[in-house]
Amino acid sequence: MPLITPRTLKGFRDHLPESMLQREQLIDKVKCIYQSYGFSPIDTPALEYEEILLGKGSDETDKQVYSFEDHGGRRVGLRFDLTVPLARFSAQHIGELGTPLKRYQIATVWRGENTQKGRYREFVQCDFDTIGTKSVVADIETALVIHDLLIALGCEAFKIHINNRKILTGLLSSLGIEDKTVPILRCLDKLSKVSREKVADEMLKIDGIGKEAVTSLLAFTEIKGTSEEVLKAARDLVTDNTTFLSGISELSELIHGLAVAGVSDSKVHLDLSIARGLDYYTGNIFETFLDALPEIGSVCSGGRYDHLAETYTKTELPGVGASLGLDRLLAAMQEIGVLDNRSLGAEIFIVYFDPERRDDYLQMARSLRSAGLRVEMYVEPKKIGQQLKYANRRGHRFALIAGSEELDQDLCQIKDLGTGDADPISLKGGYENLVVALKQKLAD
Amino acid sequence: MPLITPRTLKGFRDHLPESMLQREQLIDKVKCIYQSYGFSPIDTPALEYEEILLGKGSDETDKQVYSFEDHGGRRVGLRFDLTVPLARFSAQHIGELGTPLKRYQIATVWRGENTQKGRYREFVQCDFDTIGTKSVVADIETALVIHDLLIALGCEAFKIHINNRKILTGLLSSLGIEDKTVPILRCLDKLSKVSREKVADEMLKIDGIGKEAVTSLLAFTEIKGTSEEVLKAARDLVTDNTTFLSGISELSELIHGLAVAGVSDSKVHLDLSIARGLDYYTGNIFETFLDALPEIGSVCSGGRYDHLAETYTKTELPGVGASLGLDRLLAAMQEIGVLDNRSLGAEIFIVYFDPERRDDYLQMARSLRSAGLRVEMYVEPKKIGQQLKYANRRGHRFALIAGSEELDQDLCQIKDLGTGDADPISLKGGYENLVVALKQKLAD
C-alpha cells in the first residue's frame, strides 16, 4: 500500500508538548479566576442539531458552520461559539439549576472561515456568563473577572474598553434611524479595523442613511477624554431619549462599581466607538486590548444581553458575560514575551545506566514518586551522554546516576543539569536520604 | 417565529456543573499521574482528513466515523479515538520531537455507534503512550501508570489483567492456523461479554477452523492460577514456537518489573483469555477491571504495538500505552460511591443585604479575593432567606451578612452555613480581621 501523507487540514494544527503545556497552564489560571467569583464549569456537545445553531449569529457565521447529515439522517453541525449552546443549555436546564446561573465553559469551537495569519478553523474559547439577572452587579463582576484574568496571566498592561448598546440605539433613535440599527452597528464594529472613511462609505450604502446621520454617528464615536468627560459630552448631545439615558446611567454605575472595587482608572476606557458586531447585546459591552498589541484586536469581549434564549423558551433569560480568546491571547503573550517556559518533563531524571540494575532504578523511581516527586526513568540502557542529552532537551532539573559499582556501595550521584555539578548521596537504609536531598535541591 | 425545542442529539449530553466539576477534578488527577512519570501533553485537531482516519481500526469503527465534505470539498471526519491521530502526529513530528516520545492526550472522540445504557456517541479518552522504544521498561511503566491512576482516583480494589499477543499468535501458529489470527482474536475478545459456547460457535464459523483447534484455544484461555502457575502451564503446552516463547518471556519480565516496583501481586492478573480486539497490538496487553464492577468491562486498556505509524511513514515507530475511559470510570465511581462531592461554588458567600451598601459588599469581595479566597457576592438585593437558600444549594461554607446598621458600626456576621452558627467580627481598620477569621474557619 502506498503511504498516506501525514498532515493536518488547512486551518487546523497539532499542539506539541511545549505549546500544549502552556495552554494547560493558562487554562488552569483562567479556571482559578472564574472559580474565585463562584462560576462553575459546564460542558455541552460539540455537535448540535443544525436548527439550534443556525440563524443565531449572522449570515456570515451561518456560512461558517461545519454542518452535515449524521448516520441517522439528522442535520447536525459543530458549534461555532459557546453562546448559542449556552442559550440552548439554559432554556433546557434553568428550571433544575435555578438563577442566577454562573457558569463557565472552556471548549473548542469550529468555524470554516478563510484562514489568515493567527486565525484557525479550530480554536478554544473560555466563556463565563451570569444568567437570570439584570443586576448591574453582574456587569461589574464581568469586568472585574476580565481584569483579574489578564493580571493573573501576566498581562499587566491592558485596557478594558466599555460602552453601552442603549447609548448607540438611543442615538440612532434620536436620529430617526433606529430601524437600521443592525447594519449600522455592523459597520461601526469595523472602526478599529478599517479606516473612518471606509466605514462612512459603507454606512452610506445602507438604504435611508444620509450624510448628516453618518457625520453625527462618527463624530459621536470620536468623543474622547476621561470617563467623566465622555459621559458628560454624551449627556449634552442627547437629552430627550430614554433608551439613551438609561444606557448612560448603566455605564455610570459600571464605572463607579469598578472604581469602588479597586480597579485603576487607567485600566478602564469608556469608548463610544465599540459596538460588538453580534446582534444580541442590549446593554453594557466590553472589549479588552493589550497596550503592547492593540492591532491584534480584543482578547476578551462580551456584554449584556436580555434575550439570550428567546428562540428556545418563553422564559426571559437576561444575562451578561464575556469570552476570552485563548489562542489569540497565547499568540500575543508569546509576542510580548510573558509566557512561562515550563519544563517539559518531570523534575528528576534517572539514568538507565546498567541493564543488570534495572530493578534498582525501577525501585528508586517508585520511591521518589511515592514521595510526591515527578520522576522519569530513561527507557533504554543507551550511552549516558545520549540519555543526558535527552534529559537536557526535556528540561529535567536533576539526573540520578548510579552504576553497578556505586549501587554496590549504596551510592548515587545527583547531577544538577543546570550547573553540571554532581553530589554523591548515600542510599544506605533506603531512599529517604535521596528524597530529602532532592526536595531540598528543588526548593533552593 | 415558533420556538425551537432545546435538546441535545441522541447519544450526546450536557454536563451540568456538579458532574462537570467531578470530571475536571478527575482529569486533574489523571494529568498529575501522567506528569509524575514524565509524560507531556499534546493535542491534535478534532477533524482530520478522512483518509487518515479510515482503515485503521476495523470496518466497524470505519462505519462509526462522523465524516462529511467540508467547505473546501475535502472529505473530513471527526476522530474516533486518539491512537490514529497519535500515529499521524508521530509520523509528522517525530523528527522534531525525538524518541522516546512520552505523550498524553486527554480529548473528546466521536463514534456514531448504537447508543446503550452508559454508552455515548461523544466521550473523553485519556491516552498515554511511549513511542520509539521496544524496551520492556516502557511496558512496566504503562502498567505502573494504570496502577497509580486507579489508586489516585480512589478505586483501590481493581486488577490489571495482562497477556501477550505473541503467546496467542504463537499458539495459533503451533496449531497451524496463524492465517486466521485476526478473526480468532476478535472472537476471543468477546469472552468476557458472551458465553464460552457462543464464542466457540463463532470460531467454528471461521473457514478452516476445526473443533479440535477451538477446544485447544478455549482450554488455553481457561488456564487459571497465580502468574507463576499460569506461565508454567503455558510453557508446558507449547515448547517449540519462538513467537510463543518470546511472548512468555516478555510477560515474565513485565510481571517481575511490577513486583520489583512494589505493585502487589493481588493487583496483577495474568489472564490468557484477554485478546484486545484491535488488530495493531503485537506484545504485552492490558485490561483493568474494578473488583466491585467487573461487568462494566475494562476501564483502562492498552498494550504494545510495533507498527504504529506504518501507513504514514517508513520509520519504525514501536510503542506502548493505554487509554483510560473517563466516562465509563466516572459512571463506575458514581456507582461504587467513591466520587467526592465538591462544593459547586466559592467558599464564601456575601449576602447583598442592603442596596444602599453595594459598594461595601463589592469592596469586601475584592479584599477577600485578593487574599486568595473564593468569594461569591449575590447579584441582587433579594430577601435574605432566598439568598441563603441559593448559598446552601451551591454549597458555600460561610455567608457574610451585614446591613447598614452593622456596617455603620464596622461589624459583619460570619454565618457557618453548615451549623447555622453566626459570629460577629469587627471590620475596623479594614478587612484584615475578616480574612484571618475566615481562613481560620476554613482550615478547621
Describe this structure in words.
The structure is a homodimer of 444-residue chains. By secondary structure, chain A is α+β, with helices and mostly antiparallel strands. Chain A folds into two domains: 320 residues, Bira Bifunctional Protein, Domain 2 (BirA Bifunctional Protein, domain 2), CATH 3.30.930.10; 96 residues, Rossmann fold (3-Layer(aba) Sandwich), CATH 3.40.50. Chain A contains 16 helices and 16 strands. An eight-stranded mixed β-sheet of chain A has the order 1-5-6-11-10-9-7-8, sandwiched between helices. The mean pLDDT of chain A is 92. Chains A and B meet through helix 1, strand 1, strand 2, helix 4 and strand 5 of A and helix 1, strand 1, strand 2, helix 4 and strand 5 of B.
Q: Outline of this structure?
A:
The first copy, chain A, has 444 residues and is of the alpha+beta class. Chain A has helices spanning 17-36, 50-53, 59-64, 83-97, 136-152, 165-174, 181-188, 196-204, 211-221, 227-237, 242-260, 326-336, 358-370, 384-394, 404-408, 432-443, and strands at 40-41, 47-49, 67-69, 75-78, 101-110, 122-131, 158-164, 268-270, 284-290, 300-305, 319-325, 348-350, 375-377, 398-401, 411-416, 422-426. The model of chain A has no long low-confidence stretch (mean pLDDT 92).
